[in-house]
Design brief:
heterodimer, A: mainly beta, 8-stranded parallel β-sheet, 14% helix, B: alpha/beta, 2 domains, 12 helices, disordered C terminus
């Protein structure tokens, strides 16, 4: 699989923008297989230090949390396949903590009334590629994604997230908050795809990017594909710094500009970290970010 | 159960009449160096243009087809007639235009519009302009509005044409830009001198009458510092079974502090492949406004591009796309912020019905030198049945920290809250829904010149029985 095409935009666009796909050599990765059969309310924490292949089956009305904390020194491929049976709830927390080169592929299939909540946090990393495809096959199935990233000089991130609305009355919500500093580079492609037959479905995505350095490069491609009449889809994006009026107000309250943007950057990430709802992982992220002691701040 | 609102297909009877062509006037099908030479001979091209055409042909041959967007598999470029000899030379008196051509344009209302509300008119029939006229007072102000070939041979403008022609859209831009460079014919040249403001618009109308033919007109507009122009472009063709091709090119140079409004109503027949390229370069403090209505053609690729190259330059794009049965209309806009404190605003609407597909595709690029720039993109789509498609594919690339870029898009149907509000104000449910559907396109139609707004309203006929959605 030399030079595999990854993160392929479902509907390609202008080639000159460089957003249609990425290529990575993932041939050399060695992968460990792991099967998680979840049939009760549980919390599973997985430390991932190398290539891994997860199969997660959620059954029997289970309401579970799975945390994948990925910290690898070299190259790694993390494959995760989720099958959420009818009526189950799964929160999947994926943390990518400053890895050298990581490719993550997440495929989820949701049956009737199943829900998947993805909390994805990228804390730096030379080269992180994340692809998520959530197939909302079942009636009233739902997918919620809270995504956060903080990238500095030398960091590169490419996210491709696709919510396929196949079933009736399905719901997807994608919220992305990120901070770019130094010469960081990030591409976020988010697609809400209303297939024919997905009547009554709703999808919304929003990305807010705080750019802190003139050398940072941000690419945002929020796509809605629609082959069904009775649906509601929306997307939005804000990129840049806060406007002059807000900055003026904050300065008038005694914040200098650097402090102001530090606070804003932290607030954005905190919003995503707060969605994890699992103390030990949140505390670990605080340490990774050098934010001090979690308990004192909370 | 609610009865659905019926949105009528566009009434094309106005456009589908035609007069038979004498095929002896056609150059052979296809694109070969010999045919390109023949076009050069017909037009008495200067040497640089002869070389330019042949070079473009080489680029065309080695450039691959685009790998995104609507399918153009049904287009066999080798079977397209790229040039049709004119039956008449270019006229400045309407009475000198041959009878059937005159009747064609009269049915489309062109001379009437000229008399009533235009500063000048150009009319292209197949490959060549057949009529060009500009009001005397406009000509006296120094405004030049003529066909591009005449300008190219006029010593006063030859150098300007040479230094601007296909510099904004080089033949290397994409395959159909290269094709255009090789076979272009007809089109207009407009020059507005410093500080001259034309309060009434100029209009060019392009009519492709011959079957299985292509139209490759080139529009070149240069606005000097502080000037203003509203330019209107209309396009139509009758329907044939053979595919037709429109691969025109528009290059707009907007000088310092100048302002250009470029309005287009495109209503090609549903056998046309509309692969048009439009681009504007805007200098310091200048402004480009695009108003675009896409109703016709089988397949469209149309993304007017604005390059904001001077400080405080700005761009606005207002567009509406209506895709009906058998249509795949891929439209949108591109904006490049390439100087500090530039601003852009994009506002589009699209409707899809009867199996039609509309795609909104855009790109906003804010370069590193565009500190303090602002951009806002807003697109809305209305699906009128479940056999149609509506996609939005916007891209935003930001390479500086000091900017403010926003994007919003919506796909949906009429909300119950809006209906409830309007019915509470005394409207019946049917009236409320009719009002909302008409209002959906309103922000575009109000940007059009009056006669085009009326035409657009006629194009979108509504029969209000029951509900949308």
């Amino acid at each position: 699989m030399e030079n595999t095409k990854l993160n392929i935009l479902p509907v390609p666009t202008f080639g000159s923008l460089g957003v249609n796909f990425v290529r990575r050599d993932i041939e050399e990765y060695e992968t460990n297989n792991k099967l998680l059969d979840i049939d009760n309310n549980t919390l599973i924490r997985e430390d991932i230090t190398g290539s891994s292949d997860y199969k997660i089956n959620v059954k029997n009305n289970a309401d579970a949390i799975v945390v994948q904390y990925v910290k690898v020194d070299g190259k790694a491929l993390v494959d995760t396949q989720i099958k959420a049976e009818a009526g189950t709830r799964l929160k999947l927390v994926q943390i990518f903590d400053g890895s050298v080169q990581t490719v993550s592929r997440l495929n989820a299939t949701l049956e009737d009334n199943a829900s998947l909540e993805l909390v994805l946090l990228v804390l730096g990393g030379n080269d992180t590629v994340c692809e998520t495809v959530a197939a909302l096959d079942g009636r009233c199935s739902s997918f919620k994604a809270d995504i956060g990233y903080t990238l500095g000089s030398g960091d590169n991130l490419d996210i491709n997230l696709i919510a396929d609305h196949n079933g009736r009355k399905t719901d997807s919500q994608i919220l992305v908050n990120g901070v770019l500093d130094g010469n960081a580079s990030k591409t976020f492609k988010g697609t809400i795809d209303f297939k024919n037959g997905s009547a009554g479905s709703k999808g919304a995505e929003q990305e807010n990017v705080l750019v802190l350095d003139e050398k940072a490069v941000n690419k945002t491609v929020p796509v809605i594909l629609c082959a069904e009449e009775d649906v509601e889809g929306s997307h939005g994006a804000t990129i840049g710094r806060i406007d002059d009026k807000q900055a003026f107000y904050m300065r008038s309250r005694g914040f200098d500009e650097q402090k102001l943007y530090e606070l804003l950057a932290r607030a954005r990430l905190k919003q995503v970290i707060g969605a994890i709802g699992e103390r030990q992982t949140e505390s670990r992220i605080y340490k990774a970010l050098d934010w001090g002691d979690y308990d004192e701040q909370e | 159960m609610n009865e659905k609102t019926q949105i009528q297909d566009i009434d094309r009877s106005l456009y589908d009449f035609r007069f038979d062509e004498d095929e002896g006037d056609f150059l052979d099908n296809g694109i070969t160096p010999e045919i390109i030479s023949e076009i050069s001979d017909e037009k008495n091209d200067p040497d640089w243009m002869r070389e330019f055409r042949q070079r473009s042909l080489e680029i065309y041959r080695r450039t691959p087809m685009v790998k995104w967007g609507a399918s153009i598999e049904g287009l066999d470029v080798d079977n397209i007639v790229t040039y049709i000899r004119p039956k008449t030379r270019m006229n400045t008196d309407w009475e000198d235009v041959p009878e059937n051509i005159k009747e064609t344009f009269e049915r489309l209302g062109i001379p009437q519009a000229e008399r009533e509300s235009l500063a000048g008119v150009g009319a292209q029939y197949d490959s060549e302009l057949v009529y060009h006229n500009v009001r005397e007072e406009v000509a006296q102000s120094g405004v030049v509005y003529t066909d591009l070939e005449s300008a190219m041979h006029d010593p006063k403008y030859a150098e300007i044409i040479k230094s601007h022609f296909m510099k904004l859209v080089p033949p290397t831009d994409h395959k159909f830009a290269a094709l255009h460079g090789a076979v272009w014919s007809g089109g207009s040249f407009v020059y507005v001198p410093k500080n001259v403001r034309l309060d009434i618009p100029l209009q060019s109308y392009f009519r492709l009458n011959a079957k299985g033919a292509g139209q490759f007109e080139h529009t070149l507009i240069i606005l000097e510092e502080g000037s203003y122009l509203h330019f209107i472009e209309g396009c139509s063709a009758p329907k044939y079974y053979e595919a037709g091709l429109h691969a025109g090119c528009v290059e707009l140079y907007v000088g310092k502090g100048a302002s250009l409004r470029y309005s287009t109503i495109e209503n090609w027949s549903k056998n046309m492949y509309n692969l048009n390229t439009k681009r504007a370069l805007v200098e310091e403090g200048g402004k480009i406004e695009w108003v675009s209505g896409s109703f016709g053609s089988h397949v469209s690729y149309l993304y007017p591009m604005s390059i904001l190259n001077g400080e405080n330059a700005s761009a606005e794009f207002t567009g509406i796309t209506f895709a009906g049965e058998g249509q795949d209309l891929d439209t949108g806009a591109k904006i490049v912020h390439n100087a500090p404190n530039t601003s852009s605003y994009m506002n589009t609407k699209s409707l899809s019905k009867s199996g039609g597909k509309s795609t909104f595709r855009s790109s906003v690029v804010v370069n590193q030198n565009a500190e303090g720039s602002k951009s806002s993109v807003n697109c809305e789509s209305l699906m009128l049945d479940s056999i149609s498609r509506s996609d939005t594919v916007p891209s935003i690339v930001v390479k500086t920290d000091k900017c403010d870029v926003g994007h919003e898009a919506k796909i949906g149907r009429i909300s119950d809250e809006a209906i409830f509000y309007l019915t509470s104000r005394g409207l019946s449910e049917e009236e409320a829904r009719a009002l909302i559907v008409r209002g959906f396109a309103d922000n575009v139609s109000k940007e059009l010149p009056l006669e085009y707004a009326v035409e657009m309203n006629n194009l979108i006929g509504l029969e209000m029985h029951g509900s949308v959605g």
